[in-house]
Give the backbone structure.
Amino acid sequence: MALLGIRWKPFLSLGLVFALFFLTGPAEAQDDASVDGAEVAGYTLGETGDTLLAEAAGDTLEETGDSLAAGAGFTDTEESKSFFGKIASSGMVDKFHEGGVFMWPLLILSVVGLAVFFERFFTFSKARINVRKFMSEIGTAMQKDGIEGSKHVCERTRGPISAVLHAGLMKAGRGTEAIEKAVESAGTVEMSFLEKGLVVISSVATVGPLVGFLGTVAGMIHAFEAIAAADQVNAKVVASGISEALITTATGLMIAIPAQIAYNYFVAQIDRFIIEMEEASTEMIDSLIRLEGGE
């Protein structure tokens, strides 16, 4: 009767595959296109006379660029305007590479956080029931078929509330203390399932900015190394290092803020489950006491 959540590892694996595809695929395709374009252009220029050099080079490079762009997927077709194509050409990949090596742990943190978020979201959605309607069904079944009827209602209802009430009904007839102890033990088990994975989201919210700040320090180190190696210091010398520092900081905060919001949301949902379980268990115990008193 324990609440089983959806496994988050498939979400993690799928996210990593898509992330690696977008971060490596476009760059490799562009490199291949430039190399092939140079080879075709060189071959054509060798065959063309000196007097037609400009015209032949221009026409050939234009045709070669179009064909290579079409082969690599960089065309103005509907496919290139798809969701994935827009992400690949939006500049996010370039920013990722400009952020340096610390962007990779930030990417892993974001994928792990998203995987656990979706797993917890679907699990909580499955666990949510109409408590008033459920308690009404419990009361009706108890009046018609006794405790066994209430057990059947709990068994066909998903979620932690039905699991807690079912544990209490299993101890019916052994006294109020035994029922309360069974309800308390079942509630502890169900809370452990509801809280599963929240430590991961909390860790992502905490570690994300720290990794971003570590990337900031690395970027500033690169900037000062560039200053020390340059004969004349100008903005271009330090721009790369400063850009790396700012990108990692911004990325760490962009990961941590949604993760913290998601963590607070799930904690609030768990508190709501606790209140509903306490109210439902109290109502069930009162119903059992009345039933035993009537007998």
